[in-house]
Amino acid sequence: QNIACVWYKQFCQILSNIGENEGGIDKFSRGYESFGVHRCADGGLYCKEWAPGAEGVFLTGDFNGWNPFSHPYKKLDFGKWELYIPPKQDRSAPVPHGSKLKVVITSKSGEILYRISPWAKYVAREGDNVNYDWIHWDPESSYKFKHSRPKKPRSLRIYESHVGISSHEGKVASYKHFTCNVLPRIKDLGYNCIQLMAIMEHAYYASFGYQITSFFAASSRYGTPEELKELVDTAHSMGIIVLLDVVHSHASKNSEDGLNMFDGTDSCYFHSGPKGTHDLWDSRLFAYSVWEVLRFLLSNIRWWLEEYGFDGFRFDGITSMLYHHHGIGQGFSGDYNEYFGLQVDEDALIYLMLANHLAHTLYPDSITIAEDVSGMPALCSPISQGGVGFDYRLAMAIPDKWIQLLKEFKDEDWNMGNIVFTLTNRRHLEKCIAYAESHDQALVGDKSLAFWLMDAEMYTNMSVLTPFTPVIDRGIQLHKMIRLITHGLGGEGYLNFMGNEFGHPEWLDFPRKGNNESYHYARRQFHLTDDDLLRYKFLNNFDRDMNRLEERCGWLSAPQAYVSEKHEANKVITFERAGLVFIFNFHPSKSYTDYRVGTALPGKFKIVLDSDAAEYGGHQRLDHNTDFFSEAFEHNGRPHSLLVYIPSRVALVLQNVDLPN
Fold first, then answer.
1. Phi then psi for 4, rounded to 5 degrees?
2. What number of other Cβ atoms are within 10 A of residue 67's Cβ?
3. pTM over 0.70
4. Which of 150, 212, 438, 623 is most buried by its number of CB atoms within 10 A?
5. Is 371 a catalytic residue?
6. Is 138 annotated in the active site?
7. How do beta strands 80-85 and 45-50 pair?
8. Catalytic residue among 133, 233, 263, 316
């Protein structure tokens, strides 16, 4: 508590300093309105940069025949530089839309460096060029949003997406393709939130979007900024909110088309020396206490909310931000001494508080999610209580548990108590996003859950015209069960990576030298689930109906579940949440007749979801017309109980039909 008070005091002090020196965080976070290159009311151009280590700053480009020194910036205080270029005689802009620009830096050592402005709104790579070009983006008319932002959903069901791999073709897919072809699928599947990866511009496609080169530019490999705005607007029209995967934990080492060495020094936006480099990621680390770095990053948060209409963020890699050791070589046991002490990078932590404060002040319905593997306490506590202010954190232990079980244990050796512990091991009132697998598990070198379960047989035995093999039968049944128990028990939100809902075969691998620049694994084969003769449709149907049931019943926004049974010999787990009874029989071969299940509620129950149903590739062993009546017979700590037939490898959800919906 004392440490949280210290954090809160530091946060208030910086907020106060921003108020005194900049007129408040509202003005401070509008850096993109003056920095970079802007058309003025008179048709002229105003340019501004922060380059504290530069000896001189110039603007060059198509507009001046690439003369490096004809347009010098004037030096201001605090390392800032500005330039005004008057309009042409016909009052048109001196730099037309679509023309190329560069900032020229003369360094203290006499070097002449060509740079892209850190505030560039659009960069693109032409032909076989290695580096990106800065292209002045100033269209005659920009996209006008037609739809208002949806209200913050009570339950968060996230579809983690990557635009570039969203087509089955071996190419980089476009914003347009995603808008027209993928958004309707996401809506049909019952997801109410999209988390978009790899939007902030990154020169290296195979970095999965995590080595950012231009922080204010939406990636041009998928299309134009206007087409991304249309994607977000169309999602809003469907009642779907859109989160950006924001990477403020580090930056690409590129200097020709990135932030690195912008002013000719190894500092500027980053720490100088070893402190400014991440050893594992080979990337640069921000100096979060530097005034202009705060302006840059906070303005970046605001830019994506205001300019593109995003509804919030997943903050990537914040374990690296929170600690001076960046989590490298650290195991986190949960001992609170690991979280509080000199190893904590308080500058980064205060920045995250400021970012959350800004997002939630601008848009109170904004959603922020922390990707932290360490389990740092108070991440999701309100800032006013000394917390960092995130709405949710990712429950990162859950996918690891499923992979461990599938890799290391026979089905009959799965520990029910350990599964329940992993799914429920979260602090009270700390909201978690549960997921069975995300993009991390699909990357080359690992395998998706479907591939762990079914492996090579997915190539030969997924046709409905062939009988179930034991491997495919097991795989399809467990795939559904793992997802439902994670969804029902694991958190206050749920996440799925695109394609994994229907058991997408193979792994993800972006074109790179190591695979001869192949796109074969950098795509999503949605057509597989549209093929009536393939079994992928069963998993897709189950995912859709699971989400739709949650939409109706709202278990993610209900209090944590009451687990009444975790029976090791029977391999049965039962729990109640949101007035529903969830029953899982993980036993590979044993079915149970008249199995007694405890419940808090008296009355009549019906099956509302059954993984054994025909439309989900099940064995249809249950009669959905059956009524189950609970009796006042105490069982497993519940005042009532009912008798149920539970086939092997089946997940059931029962609803009390006597209760009003």
1. -60, -35
2. 13
3. yes
4. 212
5. yes
6. no
7. antiparallel
8. 316
